[in-house]
């Protein structure tokens, strides 16, 4: 059975991700205590559905510690288990809760001996949730939704749900430094030293996927040397990550605006490694 576990920080998009999988035909369960996961899988496994998605959050604090061993057991029994961990910066989360005027799930909990009149602030709830979920963050693929639209998150979740699980997936992600480094990046490369097509008025409206920009950067020695260096670095260390049983490796390439140089590099790297590896290329700043 294919099992997708969606977890992470409240407000980071777990509901959006679960809805995507429901639309794709997954049997979906929200806020399931991890201790009940084996029973759910056993029940669903006898039915027609062969794909199940489960959202797990910090409200299941008592059984969160069991989740790593539960995932391991399910995999040992032949199930394909994928874990998506969604997160976002505290600043983004505060803004989202303010916009929706919803309360944080942990704000309704009272700690032992706590006065109901002195409930935790939103930032305190977010901090405690990060602490509770810290042990399971590394179980799967981390997706930073801080600067991500709902449509882009839906697209990424769909990509993740459709890939096979036995082989490492190599992600090349372009981004803009002015909007921050992606939290899900394993390696970050800065290509701002490469000549910028932005200063050519005819190239400014284009992106690194357009032929004129590609031709411009192909003609720059710094661009070809930088590309060769990044390619050599990834090629050298990729086998080590495969040996470490990693499911994903995210290589983030950043420039100033995330439109030209980083996009060009990500596309070039994806094309190079795509012949031998499972590759996904994504561009954070392009909607």
From TrEMBL:
Q: Which InterPro entries match?
A: P-loop_NTPase (IPR027417), RapZ-like (IPR005337), RapZ-like_N (IPR053930), RapZ_C (IPR053931)
Q: Which residue intervals define the domain RapZ C-terminal in the entry? A: 169-286
User: What is the annotated signal peptide range for this record?
Assistant: none
Q: Where does GTP bind?
A: 57-60
> Where does the RapZ-like N-terminal domain start and stop, copy by copy?
1-159
Instruction: Print the keywords alphabetically.
Output: ATP-binding, GTP-binding, Nucleotide-binding
Q: Which SUPFAM superfamilies match?
A: P-loop containing nucleoside triphosphate hydrolases
- Binding-site list for ATP: 8-15
Q: What's the protein called, per UniProt? A: RNase adapter RapZ
Gene of this entry: rapZ
């Amino acid at each position: 059975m294919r099992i997708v576990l969606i977890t992470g920080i409240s407000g980071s998009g777990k509901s959006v991700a679960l809805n995507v999988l429901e639309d794709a035909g997954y049997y979906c369960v929200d806020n399931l205590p991890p201790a009940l996961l084996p029973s759910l899988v056993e029940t669903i496994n006898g039915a027609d559905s062969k794909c199940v998605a489960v959202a797990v959050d910090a409200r299941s604090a008592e059984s969160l510690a069991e989740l790593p061993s539960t995932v391991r057991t399910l995999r040992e029994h032949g199930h394909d288990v994928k874990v998506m961990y969604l997160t976002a910066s505290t600043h983004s989360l505060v803004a989202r809760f303010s916009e929706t005027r919803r309360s944080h799930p942990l704000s309704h909990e009272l700690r032992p001996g706590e006065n109901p009149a002195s409930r935790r602030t939103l930032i305190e709830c977010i901090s405690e949730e990060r602490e509770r979920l810290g042990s399971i963050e590394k179980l799967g693929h981390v997706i930073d939704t801080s600067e991500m639209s709902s449509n882009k998150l839906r697209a990424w979740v769909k990509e993740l749900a459709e890939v096979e699980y036995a082989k490492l997936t190599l992600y090349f992600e372009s981004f803009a430094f002015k909007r921050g480094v992606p939290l899900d990046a394993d390696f970050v490369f800065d290509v701002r030293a490469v000549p910028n097509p932005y200063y050519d008025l005819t190239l400014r409206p284009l992106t690194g996927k357009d032929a004129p920009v590609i031709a411009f950067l192909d003609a720059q020695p710094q661009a070809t040397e930088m590309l060769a260096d990044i390619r050599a670095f990834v090629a050298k260390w990729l086998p080590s990550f495969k040996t470490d049983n990693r499911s994903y490796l995210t290589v983030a390439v950043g420039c100033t605006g995330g439109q030209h140089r980083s996009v060009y590099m990500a596309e070039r790297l994806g094309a190079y490694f795509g012949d031998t590896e499972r590759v996904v290329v994504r561009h954070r700043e392009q909607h």
